[in-house]
Design a protein that fits this description.
Number of domains: 1
Largest sheet: 2 strands, parallel
Helix content: 55-70%
Number of helices: 19
Strand content: under 5%
Structural class: mainly alpha
């Protein structure tokens, strides 16, 4: 894995993609050359060759990773050596350009709109930036406002502060944030597994920190899913360590205020907390939980709230393209069978079909787990959260590979309970690369 990451570090594409019809290729070249202004490169390649090698490195990372996880399962591992290798991977990931995604620059855009230009990121877009702003050249989405939760917008505003910050500086800042979240998540995965299965804790730590989603989508691309996972694991840790479940629920609420996709987890955890409380205390606990969580939500939205427009970009997300192969296949089938009377390939039809499938899964499969809700331990929570989010992602019309980082991390933190879910999420993550071509 070290050799594969080194290849990504030392290669750089030529400036021969300016007229390419492939926008993603132009972005890969631009992002790679931005970082290699600081980090030297040993090999210069034609841009198409560079793209093939870069994506081949991702494929090889997955092959090596799966073989390592299978081969090391059940074997005693040295924690110090594992941490040392992990630190090496992390440093390489920090230096490798974010060539597989431009989301890190979108984070910088939304933060910069608020911090530098005093605009509301939920109303303004890249079109509101001055033409002289160097960040414009690195953006993919230029016509949308922020689709993220208000807590992430606050974090982005802090990270992107400073009118003279260059695109390189902004990218490194967000990569450092993702690195910190990944380090914290790795430690929490280890400690949560160690609580019940100490002999498996190092394997779980390795399986998380060496996962290609963490290395490529977290450390290299800087996606905020690492922050979402860290907040969920903090919530789980507080539920384990604290007699006050309100603290744990605050962590889960914070994750949903970064990305709304974790809202189902928040609802499930709330039900579990209430079911485990004495019956006479449930109403009081529900009121206290509701008040505290509502307070956090109000505080997070307060700097940006101007009405429902704050949620418009998020609600429009499926309309930007249905790239889930499963939903597209089912949508085509439903549309054909009904003779076009039901347009299951449109955004509204696809979302309706996804919601129906998710609710069907809850009814037929997941409801059996809810019978044991009052006796759940923190590890039961973690595996249930992982399964819930995985099912949601599998059927959602618009997905991206990095979304699966969160259910994989949750499954690994649940220890032996989540081993099957971990492998299912791993297969789903690898299959999700089809979304890049849809």
């Amino acid at each position: 894995m070290l050799a594969i990451l080194t290849v990504l570090l030392v290669t750089v594409p030529r400036s021969d993609a300016a007229t390419s019809t492939f926008k993603s290729l132009r972005e890969m070249v631009r992002n790679a050359q931005l970082f290699h202004e600081v980090f030297p490169a040993a090999v210069v390649l034609p841009s198409p060759v560079f793209a093939v090698i870069a994506w081949s490195c991702v494929a090889f990372l997955w092959v090596v990773y799966v073989l390592l996880c299978l081969g090391l399962t059940g074997r005693p591992l040295d924690l110090r050596a594992t941490v040392t290798w992990t630190a090496g991977f992390a440093l390489l990931g920090l230096a490798i350009p974010p060539v597989f995604s431009t989301d890190i620059f979108s984070y910088a855009l939304f933060g910069r709109l608020a911090a530098v230009y005093g605009l509301n990121p939920y109303l303004a877009t890249a079109a509101d930036l001055p033409r002289s702003d160097a960040l414009l050249a690195y953006l993919y989405w230029r016509d949308i406002s922020s689709p993220y939760g208000p807590l992430w917008t606050i974090v982005s505003t802090i990270v992107a502060a400073g009118g003279d910050a260059t695109p390189l500086e902004l990218a490194i800042r967000f990569k450092l944030l993702s690195l910190g979240a990944s380090v914290l998540s790795g430690w929490l995965v280890y400690r949560l597994v160690q609580e019940r299965w100490p002999e498996h804790a190092t394997w779980a730590y390795l399986a998380f920190t060496w996962n290609p989603l963490v290395l490529v989508e977290g450390l290299i691309a800087g996606h905020n899913d690492t922050v979402v996972l860290a907040l969920l694991l903090i919530g789980a840790w507080l539920l384990l360590r604290s007699a006050q479940p309100v603290l744990g629920m605050l962590g889960l609420t914070a994750s949903a205020l970064v990305k709304y996709s974790t809202l189902p987890i928040l609802g499930l955890a709330g039900l579990a907390v209430l079911s485990q409380a004495p019956q006479l205390r449930r109403l009081g606990l529900a009121l206290r939980l509701g008040g505290v969580l509502l307070g956090l939500i109000v505080l997070a939205f307060a700097p940006f709230w101007v009405g429902i427009e704050v949620l418009t970009s998020t609600l429009n997300e499926p309309g930007r393209g249905i790239n889930n192969l499963l939903i597209r296949g089912l949508g085509w089938f439903v549309t054909e069978v009904t003779g076009g009377r039901i347009d299951a390939l449109g955004p509204a039809g696809a979302v309706g079909m996804a919601v129906a499938l998710f609710l069907l899964w809850l009814l037929l499969i997941f409801r059996r787990q809810l019978r044991s809700l009052p006796s759940w331990t923190v590890h039961d929570h973690l595996v249930a959260w992982s399964q819930l989010l995985l099912a949601f992602l599998v059927v959602w019309p618009r997905i991206h590979t990095w979304y699966f980082l969160v259910p994989i991390g949750l499954a690994l933190a649940s220890g032996r309970y989540g081993r099957r879910t971990f492998w299912l999420a791993t297969v789903a993550a690898m299959a999700s690369y089809t979304s890049y071509v849809l």
